[in-house]
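ESCALATION

Customer reports they have been waiting on this structure for their group meeting. Please prioritize. Original submission:
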Amino acid sequence: MLGILLTTIIWGGGFVITKNAVARVTPIYMMAARFTIACAALPVFYFKKLRLITRADMLPGAALGFWLAAGFITQTYGIKYTTASNSAFITSFYVVAVPFLNLLFNRARLRAIHLAAAAMAFAGVLLLSVDGAFRINSGDALTFVCSFCYAAHIVLLGRYAKKRDVAALTILQMLFAAAFCWICAPVFEGAPGLSILFGGSGLRLISEILYLALLSTMLGFLLQTSAQKNLPTATASVLLTLECVFGSAFSIIFLRDPVGPRNISGFALMFAAVLVSVLKSPSD
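Update from on-call: job pushed to the front of the queue and completed.
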């Protein structure tokens, strides 16, 4: 249980770190560095698993890497134009979206509780994102797209993990996510601005990317995997929803994100929808 709680704290802190970092480096290059470092570090823990990777694992690894990269890119671009606390809660919509994509890809049963959770979550997104003129914040819209990318990743991972080695898939998806980011970065962001690494804030930026790569990505995965061996899935799922709570709390404390009745109502609806979804999932 402590492992899951530590994971949610690390991931919650990642929203603050990302918000600070995107002020100095473009999102796709930052994600490329993050996945590259994580991919290079994972074999330290899973060196023996490298021998288990087969040609048949490549396509699933590429599919997972694509959706993982798409999720992180849209989330990171989104956080440039919204608050870190909004990003934390809107990202959690992926929990609500999973049953709908599971219906689409796997023809899984969709229950009334899923529709209720989706309605609550969507109302929460509207409270957080739409202004008085009924215009949605572009950062919130990108983050909403990100939640569906994460949901697609989770659905596909659930399918592939039944037939493939999970550690091998993890290494491959990190590798392909890094590759997709390195391919996309020059196309959408031009040449990398490496001069930032040698400026006054270079050391801070490097430390932020290392936090995201080694703590949020690599250590977070290791802690989650280890903890879920000893915890029921339902318990782990509920605990993991605390990521959005920690993310919002850290954003309010360290970034001075605004807090008002509208924000609080939106956060409450999003959190309630996520809890409803994860509490009902094990029996679905």
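Sent to customer with the following note: Residues 2-283 form one domain.
Escalation resolved.
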